[in-house]
Amino acid sequence: MPRTRPNIIITGTPGVGKTTLCESLASTTHLVHLAINRVAKERDCYDGWHDALNSWIVDEDKVLDAIEEEVKLGGYLIDWHACDLFPESWIDLVIVLRCDSTVLYDRLKARNYSEQKLQENMDAEIMEVLLDEAREAFHKDLIIELQSNSSDDMEANTARIETWVEQWTRDRCSEAMRGA
Question: What Cα–Cα distance (Å) separates residue 7 from each residue in 32, 93, 94, 147, 178?
Answer without folding.
Answer: 9, 7, 9, 21, 23
